[in-house]
Design a protein that fits this description.
Shape of chain B: globular
Number of helices of chain B: 10
CATH architecture of chain B: 3-Layer(aba) Sandwich
Largest sheet of chain B: 6 strands, mixed
Strand order of the largest sheet of chain A: 1-2
Radius of gyration of chain A: 19 Å
Shape of chain A: globular
Number of helices of chain A: 11
CATH superfamily of chain B: P-loop containing nucleotide triphosphate hydrolases
Number of domains of chain A: 1
Helix content of chain B: 25-40%
Oligomer: heterodimer
Number of domains of chain B: 1
Strand content of chain A: under 5%
Number of strands of chain A: 2
Order of helices and strands of chain A: HHHHEEHHHHHHH
Helix content of chain A: over 70%
Largest sheet of chain A: 2 strands, antiparallel
Order of helices and strands of chain B: EEEHEEHEHHHHEHEHEEHH
Structural class of chain B: alpha/beta
Number of strands of chain B: 10
Strand content of chain B: 25-35%
CATH topology of chain B: Rossmann fold
Largest interface: A-B, 21 and 30 residues
CATH class of chain B: Alpha Beta
Radius of gyration of chain B: 19 Å
């Protein structure tokens, strides 16, 4: 029973990693930039939700869409102000920019909301679902269900909508996308908005489980490992990599000496790089330049 | 007959390298205009400047009497200039169907499906691969897909960059036939860049010859075919000298 219990909490933690990893992958696929501030964008999303619910007293189900809207705006703003001018600049410059952005966001959050942990008030928090000996908190169920729903929506979006197809087209062949009349710059803006929204969803879902402080964005590094395990560039791979990291982490926490749990994501990453460097889903086989 | 596209004194650089040095061209509506030249002559650069992928340092491009120099390539495409770039730039992991639909991205009218059928009509072979990813098609099929995708834009002007590149003579023949049909049946204006000079001169109404960034010769294609320089350099006809051998030493150049 214990193992099932662990697997469930591993999956729910893994979903959060997976969602952040998804944000990494989306931006990387479209623009070939790696946004190391993705975790901090998640942190910002959680704080925006806390502001709406705890501070302004909005009902939860209003606060969530409002948060997503605000974060979509943040994503668009980041793209327009910081990342569009960086198109064509060397990779390390973009990398430094995103790392710097992470610092700025953390400092900003500390200045606005203080550094003591805050909780996101959620209607279902504290309730548990009992299945025999297994006890699952509703907040964990919400993470799993929320992630599953989001994955389904993303799949439908990329498979069946014109804009979703255009995003894929622009990521697969930018020049050809321009030549068929796809407004590539606007598509990139949408990609940033989408990835900020996904990060915000991760933040909202994880906030009731782990309290929110300005440093929770550092899980982004684990999520980065998850994205690589999944084969950087594959969206199902990002989620699967996240789940794998989450589960391995829980198991390491139980069976290995203390301290190993935090390391396990990177050990998994190293093992993956040795035995299957292209990741679980190799979509990087060739990308035309 | 009015000019659909006019290029005036275009100059463009790749860094410090001057790629085109004052090119002027006119493309009359409803005609096929061929642009010939060796590797590195600047043909592709001219096309890129037309479609907005490159911004020229000097000179203007006007389309339907309107200046389009320096606009974004997606905007230019939406004005009705479809550019089929060199080397079959398809969307590799989208299906053939999705590739074609992307060609109509900017269109909102109801005739997209009818146009899809029309493209399959021109390229029946694509019909049997509608659901497979473009990356799995052969080179010729990918080239057809790229042309078909450009047609989905309902262009007024189609720019074709080396459509025959890497294709078998049979496929080159087939693609030429289709370009001819498009021009005749749909009234499509075509700017064709080719190294395959025979194909370009057979298809074209009017031709320009480029060398090292300049237009060095222009005339109707019928007359270009007769010109000795063209025959010698581009059509590879043996120039029988007095002693019956090729005069390698006396090769002409316009440089």
């Amino acid at each position: 029973m214990e193992i099932i219990q662990l697997l469930i909490s591993g999956v729910s933690q893994g979903c959060v990693y997976g969602l952040i990893a998804l944000g990494f992958v989306l931006i990387y696929k479209a623009t070939e930039m790696v946004n190391f501030a993705q975790g901090d964008v998640m942190m910002l999303g959680a704080y925006v939700a806390i502001t709406f619910t705890s501070i302004w007293g909005w009902p939860y189900y209003w606060a969530v869409p409002a948060t997503l809207l605000v974060m979509a705006g943040v994503g668009i703003l980041l793209e327009r102000l910081l990342f569009r001018p960086m198109i064509g600049e060397p990779h390390f410059a973009v990398l430094m920019l995103t790392i710097g952005l992470g610092f700025v966001l953390r400092a900003l959050a500390g200045a606005i909301w203080g550094s003591e942990p805050r909780a996101l008030q959620m209607p279902y928090v504290g309730d548990v679902l009992r299945m025999g000996e297994v006890v699952v908190g509703y907040e964990n169920l919400a993470i799993i269900a929320g992630t599953a729903l989001l994955c389904l929506l993303m799949w439908l979006f990329f498979r069946f909508t014109t804009v979703g197809l255009a995003m894929q087209a622009a990521s697969q062949n930018q020049l050809a996308a321009f030549y068929v009349g796809i407004p590539v710059k606007r598509i990139f803006m949408l990609v940033w908005a989408l990835s900020a929204v996904i990060a915000a969803i991760a933040g909202i879902l994880t906030a009731p489980v782990s309290l929110v402080d300005p440093l929770i964005g550092f899980v982004g590094i684990k999520a980065f490992a998850a994205a690589i395990v999944g084969g950087f560039g594959s969206m199902p791979g990002a989620i699967l990599g996240g789940l794998l990291v989450g589960i391995v982490e829980q198991l390491a926490g139980l069976y290995l000496p203390p301290g190993f749990a935090d390391m396990s994501a990177y050990v998994l990453l190293l093992v993956m790089l040795v035995i299957r460097p292209q990741g679980l889903f190799a979509t990087m086989q060739k990308k035309k330049v | 007959m009015s000019n659909l596209l006019e290029i005036r004194n275009l100059e463009a650089y790749y860094g410090p390298v001057m790629a085109i040095r004052g090119v002027s061209m006119e493309i009359p509506e409803g005609q096929v205009v061929s642009l010939l030249g060796a590797n590195g002559a600047g043909k592709t650069t001219v096309l890129k400047t037309i479609s907005g992928a490159m911004v020229p340092q000097k000179g203007t491009v006007s389309y339907q009497g309107r200046l389009i120099t320096g606009r974004d390539p997606d905007w230019v495409a939406r004005q009705g200039i479809a550019h089929v770039p060199e080397g079959r730039e398809v969307f590799p992991f989208l299906s053939v169907d999705e590739n074609l639909k992307m060609g109509a991205f900017s269109r909102r009218d109801r005739e997209i499906n009818a146009d899809l059928e029309r493209v399959y009509d021109y390229f029946p072979i694509l019909k049997s691969f509608t659901k497979s990813q473009a990356v799995n098609l052969s080179g010729g099929q990918q080239q057809m897909l790229a042309i078909g995708r450009a047609l989905m834009l309902r262009p007024t002007l189609m720019i074709l960059d080396e459509p025959s590149l890497g294709l078998s003579p049979l496929l080159v023949q087939e693609i030429s036939e289709i370009i001819k049909r498009l021009n005749a049946e749909e009234g499509l204006t075509v700017l064709l860049v080719e190294q395959n000079a025979k194909m370009a001169l057979d298809l074209g109404d009017y031709g320009y010859v480029m060398e090292v960034g300049r237009i060095v010769m222009e005339d109707s294609c019928a007359r270009l075919k007769e010109a000795t320089d063209i025959q010698e350099f581009y059509l590879g006809m043996k120039d029988q000298g007095v002693r019956g051998r090729r005069r390698w030493k006396q090769r002409k150049t316009w440089r």
